[in-house]
């Protein structure tokens, strides 16, 4: 049968060249030779032809699968790239927006087909919101807690915690303070409500400054006050400073009479809280009259505000000239940030070493420092992030430039440079 093989090979070559690609080998034999071969030879040649065709089909199928796999992979890569570009544009927009609110909106990504709102617990569906002209459907998302929520909750009166900014979930009770501010259960469990409760924390912050060789030799009165008293005191200041829309602390330099909260009292079933105030005349014995802090904030947030205001006091007592808001508020935010990190890093040798390795930003812990609970530590990390993400020029930009200077040159050298030039070292 060797000659049959040769014939088959010859014919295969010939039918490729002569346009017989769609003819079977059997038909080809009949076409060329008028059917003169016996049935056995024809059947053998047909079997060879069918076998070869099967191999070609399998190879074609493999190639087709590989092509489809490559196309699918490319589509997935394109979707990921598109999602990343969309997210980058939204994040860039939110960072450039001069807003103190920490939440931002971003578009649905391809992988996020089902998202539950952290507020109403309803599904945020693409079909429930009218997309923008570019097809992007947005939802709110907190940059620290990663809470996703319907954009409508930003204007429909849904409560946010005044301290950690978390949206009030459906079915969770938030504490409503006298002045209308809301506190989540976590922040409420650490809130400071009067001056007596705040005194130990005030001493902690003073020790923190002493550990930085920045001890305040002058005794400074402390007052925990209501919002109205704080706003009135701020209006009475001749040496005004740049303040956020929500004033939470004030370094007072003028003599004023302020109603100080000295006690809180529960009435009846303890559901009603009454704040007992006492009028106090704050007399100016030096450049600083008193430090006032808004009541009802959790301990770590209150401490960071104390550190900020105490830095204002230190600058005045050390004879620093009047500084631009971004310089003074920026360096005060640096100290608030440092104090928070010193609290968060208690009990973490690795974190303490990292914080103090380059510029001694992290002072030694006092014996009174104790490890925080996981809840309070998470809140502290949130307050750190708030300082870092602040979008305002004085507090946000000022902090970032100041923190970079302190990281590069150290705190003492940065402060010396500010005193000489009224600017941060570059």
Automatic annotation (TrEMBL):
Could you tell me which InterPro entries the record lists for this protein?
A: DA1-like (IPR045218), DA1-like_dom (IPR022087)
A GO molecular-function annotation: ubiquitin binding
Domain Protein DA1-like, residue spans: 212-420
The domain of life for this entry's organism is Eukaryota
Q: What Pfam families does the record tag this protein with?
A: DA1-like
**Where are the bilayer-spanning segments?**
none
What protein does this entry describe? Protein DA1-like domain-containing protein
């Amino acid at each position: 049968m060797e000659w049959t093989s040769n014939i088959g090979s010859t014919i295969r070559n010939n039918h490729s060249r002569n346009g017989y690609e769609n003819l079977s080998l059997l038909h080809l034999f009949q076409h060329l030779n008028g059917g003169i071969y016996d049935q056995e030879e024809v059947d053998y040649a047909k079997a060879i032809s069918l076998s070869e065709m099967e191999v070609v089909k399998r190879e074609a199928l493999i190639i087709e699968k590989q092509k489809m796999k490559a196309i699918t992979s490319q589509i997935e890569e394109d979707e990921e790239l598109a999602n990343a570009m969309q997210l980058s544009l939204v994040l860039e927009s939110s960072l450039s927006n001069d807003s103190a609110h920490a939440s931002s909106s971003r578009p649905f990504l391809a992988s996020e087909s089902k998202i539950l709102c952290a507020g109403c617990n309803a599904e945020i569906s693409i079909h429930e919101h009218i997309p923008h002209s570019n097809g992007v459907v947005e939802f709110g998302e907190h940059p620290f807690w990663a809470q996703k929520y319907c954009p409508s909750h930003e204007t429909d009166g849904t409560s946010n915690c005044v301290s950690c900014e978390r949206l009030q979930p459906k079915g969770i009770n938030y504490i409503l303070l006298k002045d209308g501010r809301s506190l989540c259960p976590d922040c409420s469990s650490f809130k400071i409500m009067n001056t007596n409760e705040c005194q130990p924390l005030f001493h902690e912050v003073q020790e923190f400054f002493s550990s930085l060789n920045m001890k305040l030799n002058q005794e400074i009165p402390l007052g925990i006050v209501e919002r109205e008293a704080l706003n009135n005191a701020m209006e009475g200041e001749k040496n005004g400073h740049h303040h956020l829309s929500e004033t939470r602390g004030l370094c007072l330099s003028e003599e004023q009479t302020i109603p100080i909260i000295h006690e809180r009292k529960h009435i009846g079933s303890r559901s009603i809280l009454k704040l007992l105030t006492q009028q106090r005349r704050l007399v100016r014995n030096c450049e600083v009259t008193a430090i006032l802090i808004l009541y009802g904030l959790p301990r770590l947030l209150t401490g960071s505000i104390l550190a900020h205001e105490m830095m204002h006091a230190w600058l005045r007592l050390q004879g620093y000239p009047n500084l631009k808001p971004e310089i003074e508020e920026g360096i005060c935010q640096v100290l608030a940030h440092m104090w928070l990190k010193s609290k968060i890093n208690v009990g973490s040798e690795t974190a303490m070493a990292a914080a103090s390795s380059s510029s001694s930003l992290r002072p030694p812990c006092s014996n009174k420092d104790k490890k925080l609970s996981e809840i309070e530590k998470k809140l502290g990390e949130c307050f750190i992030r708030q300082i870092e993400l602040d979008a305002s020029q004085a507090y946000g930009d000022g902090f970032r430039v100041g923190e970079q200077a302190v990281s590069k040159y150290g705190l003492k050298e940065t402060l010396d440079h500010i005193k000489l030039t009224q600017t941060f070292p570059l």
